[in-house]
Structure formats: C-alpha cells, structure tokens
Hints:
Elements: E1 2-3, E2 10-17, H1 28-43, E3 49-53, E4 57-64, H2 67-82, H3 92-103, H4 113-119, H5 133-143, E5 149-155, H6 157-169, E6 192-195, E7 205-213, H7 216-227, H8 232-238, E8 244-254, E9 257-266, H9 275-296, H10 303-310, H11 314-326, E10 336-344, H12 361-368, H13 372-390, E11 394-400, E12 407-413, H14 427-435, E13 446-452, E14 455-462, H15 470-486, H16 492-506, H17 509-521, H18 535-540, H19 543-555, E15 558-564, H20 568-580, E16 604-610, E17 616-623, H21 629-642, H22 648-654, E18 668-674, E19 681-688, H23 690-708, H24 714-732, H25 735-744, H26 769-779, E20 786-792
Parallel strand pairs: 1-5, 6-10, 11-15, 16-20
Antiparallel strand pairs: 2-4, 2-5, 3-4, 7-9, 7-10, 8-9, 12-14, 12-15, 13-14, 17-19, 17-20, 18-19
Helix pairs in contact: 1-2, 1-3, 2-6, 7-9, 8-9, 9-13, 10-11, 14-16, 14-19, 15-20, 21-24, 21-26, 22-23
Amino acid sequence: xxxxxxxxxxxxxxxxxxEGIAPDRGAMVAVALGALVEERLAARGVVESDAVAGWxxxxxRALVASSADGAKLVDMAREAMLAPVGPKDAALAAVAKKLxxxxxxxxxxxxxxxxxxxxxxxxxxxxxxxxxAMELDAWRRSAHxxxxxxxxxxxxxxxxxxxxAALARxxxxxxxxxxxxxxxxxxxxxPLVYDASGEIxxxxxxxxxxxxxxxxxxxxxAAPALGDPRGPLASRLAALDAPGRVRSVVATAHVDGGCxxxxxxxxxxxxxxxxxxxxxxxAALARxxxxxxxxxxATPPDLRHALAMRAPDPRDAADRxxxxxxxxxxAGRDELRAALTVGLAxxxxxxxRAMGSGGSPAxxxxxxxxxxxxxxxxRAEIDRATMAWHAPVVEARTRVERGQGExxxxxxxxxxxxxxxxxxxxxxxxxxxxxxxxGDEAGDARVEPLVLADAVGVLAHGPPRxxxxxxxxxxRLADVAGRAFAxxxxxxxxxxxxxxxxLARAGEIxxxxxxxxxxxxxxxxxxxxxxxxxxxxxxxxxxxxxxxRAAAIRAGPLRVAVLANVxxxxxxxxxxxxxxxxxxxxxxxxxCPPLPTITTARYGTYAVExxxxxxxxxxxxxxxxxxxxxxxxxxxxxxxxxxxxxGLLARAVGGSGRADxxxxxxxxxxxxxxxxxxxxxxxxxxxxxxxxxxxxxxxxRATLDRLHQGAFREEDRVRAATALGRATVAASLDPRARxxxxxxGEATAGTGDRAAAGRPKAGPPPPTLDAIRAFASAELRDxxxxxxxxxxxxxxxxxxxxxxxxxxxxxxxxxx
Length: 816
C-alpha cells in the first residue's frame, strides 16, 4: 500500500514474475500472459488498464475512481488470471498479435541474452510461434499463483482496505511454480563479442557492462551516480584517448537480487586505430567503475518505499510497489558479479581500414565483422587492461592526523616545471589553474592549484558532511582532486580564464623582476625559478599547447599525498579514489623527460621597467651548485641570518639611514633560497623608493662581500637557528605546508611502511660555523652575482646604476 492524497484517482497494480518458466522462450511467456489477462479484462469492460511485459515478468496497472472500483478490479483480475485457457479462448487473437509484435523486435544477437536478463527488456529470440492453448495454460498455472504475484495500491487508506478485503473474501489462490532463478554468469566468464552491424554506426563499437548484486537495492541506489552525465563514469570515459559516451544506465530489481547495465558507445573516428586496445581500455574502466560505485553506494533502508512515493503518477507508484514486493535478495554470500559484452559494426566500405589491424582491405572488413580473431584480440586486451586498472599508477604517501577538522588531498605531477622552456613557461600553472576553475563539482570542498618548481597539481580539502562516513569523506575529496587534475577535459573557456589570471599575475611588479631573474639564472627555463610562468611564455603558448601539456602531465608520473583525520582505511580510500581517475594503458611507462642541459647562469646586471609611481626593487642572486644539499643547507642558514628585523640586511640597509636619503621611506629587505630543486639560488630582495635603490644595492653587496671574507659570526648562526626554528614550527601548524612536505617526502619515512608513516624524516644536521663560512667564501663572490634592477621608466635611455659593476662581466639590459 502506497498511501497518498491529492490524486484525482487511485491506482491498483498487479505484478507477476515468470522467472524460470520456459526459459528457452525468453520474454514470450510474459508477453503472452500479459496479453491474455489484458484482453480478458477488456472483454469485461476494463478498458483503462494496460499490461506491460518484460523478459521475466509482466505488470498490469489501472486507475480506479473509488474503493469499490478497486475491489471490483481485483476480483475481475483474479478471474482473468485463474481462468483456464481453451482452444477457442477469445483472448488468443490478442496474444497472437502481441507475439507478432515481439517477433518484430528481435534480439540483435544471442550474446545479448544476459544483458536483457539484466535489464528485463522484452526482445524476441527468433522463435515467437504461437503456443498452443495447452502450452499457454501451463504457463498460466505456473505463473499465476502464490509467491509469484504481488498486488499494490496507491491512494487513500480506504482503497487499500477495500482491495485487501476483496482478496480476503475470495477463495484461496492456487500455488504457483517454485521460483527458480537463472544462474548468474560465471565469475571468470570471458567477454562476449558479437556483430553489431545495423545496431550502431559502421565502424563503431558498443560496450555493455552488467553487474549483478545480491541485493536489488544496491543496484538501484548506484544507478543515479553511474548515469550522471557529469559523474565519475561519464567523466572517466570522456578522458580516454578514445572517449566513450554513456548511452544508458538501467538498474532493475529481480527475484534473485539486482542488476545494473551500463551501455557505452565508441565512435568510428575514435577507434580508427588500435581498436582492440581502445575498446578494452574503455571496457575495463567501465567495469571497474560499476564495481566501485556499487561497492561504495549507501543504500537507504526505506529505498523501496521512497522509490514508490517519488512517482508523480499513482499508476507508477503502485507499479513500482508491486514489482518491489516480488524482488528478493539472492541467497548466499554478498557478492558482485560483472560481465562484459562488446558489439562491433562492420565498416561501410571494406576498403576503410577501420579496425587498424594493418592487413589488407579484405582482412580489415573481416575484422570489423567480429571474427574469432578480433574477438580473441579484444578479450586478450581486456585482460591486460583489467590488470592495468587494478595496478595502481599513482605513487601514494599518507599520514593519519587523528582529530583534525579536515582531510587534505594533494595530487601533483612529480615532473613539476622541468619540461617547460621560455616559449611555454607557465603552461603547467595554466593546467593546474584551469583544472580548478569548474567549481560546481567541488561543492563544499575547497580546491586550489598547487604550482611549485617540483610539483604542479591541485589540492583539495574540507570537513566532513553530516552523517558522512570517514571513508566517504576522503573519497569525496579525492574524487574532486582526481577528477579535476587527471580526467576533466580542459575546454577553451577554462584555459582562457586561467591564462588571463596568470597573465595578470605575470604583469605584477614582483613577477616582472622574478621573470627576469629566471631568464638570467636558468637561461631558457625561467619557470624553474618562477613556476607560475612569464608573460612571454603564457602569451606564446596556444590553447592546444596547454591542452597538450595537460595530456603530458596526466600521462606522466603522479603522486598523491593524503592527510587523513580518522584512520589508515580512510587514507587508503582516498588513494584508491584518486588512482581510479588516472587513465592508463597496459605496459605503459611513466617518467619525466630527461633533465635538459643546463646553460650557465648569465651573470651581470639587468634592468626591468616598472609602471610609473611603483616602488623600485632589486634582486641579488647567487646561483647554488645543483644537487649540492650541503650548499643548499648553508644557503638557507645564511638567508635566515640575513633576514628579519634584526638580521644582517636590516642592519645594513633598513635601520641605519645610510642607504636611504632623508625623508624617504626605509628600504625593506629579505632573503630566501629560491628555485629548488632544479635551479637553487640564494636571493636577496630589496624594495625601496627609486632614489634609495642604488645605495641599498650597494650596501647589500657590501654585506655579501663581508660574508665572503669571513664576517659570519657565531651569534649570526644562533640567530639563524632561532629564525629557522620559528619557521619550522609555523609550517608544522599549517596543514597545507604539512601535506606539501608529505608529498615531497620531507615529513614521512616513505610509503608502504605503516609503522614509519608520520615519523619525521631525519633532516641534514645543522651546519657548523666553519661550514657556513666555507660556503660563503666559495659562493658569495661579487663576480658571481646576478642583479635585477626593476624601477619606473626614466627619461634617459641609460640603464640604472646598481653600485659597482661585477668584476669580469658587462652590464646588460633586458626589458621584460
């Protein structure tokens, strides 16, 4: 009983399962019995009822104007269902007509029998000859009995009471035949390949994945996500080299569990080459996605009732309620059984090399018609693709931080900006920025681009939703990151928005100076210093170039870092969710391009023109030996000693007044190590009014020269240690910094070692005073400086002075 008000009329529905009755005749049993009862009711004056037959049952429904009409309908339906069938039965003509119509809807291929058993659709099997009256009556006696019939009402309580009373006062229903469900496909069943010519366009392919579930609710609950055009299945298929389109997703309840059938189409153009591999990749992906969605779906306890209540028409509500009454969970252990069916259509012209096998045109046409050779090739490729989808391709680093308010997921390319040159500097940043510009899928998760010299990716984080399990929480955030960075196509509109945002950033004062520094420190690779890119690189790269960069990133090595807030199972769920978004091919190798030959830094002084009225600034950079960890450590300690209100730079240019003319703003100065790991450099930055800049640069150079000559003292080292300690504590309090450190491997002992997960990795020991002095003596040479002087344009054409010239170099000017 579905109790509801407001409908002009109520409804009564009757559902009958024919499962196991003459299984060799397919849908013919249900079609014949449904037509028999419908015609008998029509002869009794019930003209507003309709019977709908499927593969394994039929349903009848009708509107009723009153409770009395409902009771009368049930009485007449009982008579129509239980009356024997004789040779001269008036309803036989209607049965013959319906069977003739069924014959005109033939099953395209016997390979699809399991598919229609899953979907419950009525198809002819090629033998729709009219059964004898005796055979039809045998079907009737088997189907129209107890355990095979359900009756439902949709309307007010009096309607349900009247129908129940009519059933109660009538004689007992006879028993029906025992329900014997058809066996499920074997767990190791090989994919079926058939000729789908005429069903799909020439040269195309169709993949049908069926997944049987022990409980019908699980199959039906998973269908909305699987059928969502912006859902994981559709998005992952669209990201393949040969994009697949989800044609339909059908979920059904049966007397022995549930079933979901997802149909995916591949166009002839997209499978014009590497046909078996491309079909297999899409098929294995679809099968995996069905398994994941069904395994992860949350099934509401009142799903059956909710589905009936949602129906806007009372007939649909009663129809759903009646059929659900017949559905049962399959006996035995809870399991999922998936099967694959692949249809191939012959090419229109045998001379078209649609299958890409490399043979003669005749061989090509033979392949397109689904010969055993191509069927075996597809099956073999599906086996390989299945293994590829089961083997993770994303390197994972996880840590559990119990009690934190959010889960953090960072997915990034380990190649960083390594592949970028001057002409495309910033394309990686454009990929990461465009990836997060579709905010409708993120929901209440926060997602942002992460752009570093050694990592280009996205970072997703957020708190759990109400009643959301820890694993579901982690999977949701992982899906946001994985989908955005590894699967979603970057359309031209998103690329244009990302480019505009990055070009605006590249035009800022700081970025102009940094771009010039990148061009001098790492000639040909400015984004190794400023990974967000340069105006030239971003302006030169086309939309196609950025799309190709995205494809290269997705095909390269990827790493995910997860900060879970409950347990290791939550972290593992996030890793699996991210990994499933990454498209892959069997046997593929993922590696960064080789490190290009690094051109020697171009020492000297460079001028950058700034907008009028902008504060001037200067960058003084000392390149560090690549790969020398000891040098980087010593440089970091020197930078800490130089930095800060009481640091060496502040004493030289910020507090004495010697560098700044009276009445001008004081010079601001700080230092850091930039460009690691590809092109590390110790960089000092000065910001001052234009009149003060030259004096500030001179004082900073003098400070570096004194350090070069051994002026670094123990109290400077102590100050550096204190500053670095404060910075370490500050970073450790920021989950964003922690997840980046985890991704880099700087905060964990590695992956796969649960006992070591979360344990700080031993860092380099603090350098001694002698080590820092030795570094300063070797590297802080005045002739090894790169100086960028950025200031508003002057009336004269002469480049600005920046103190004394570096020895042995000429002064160069470059306008950025």
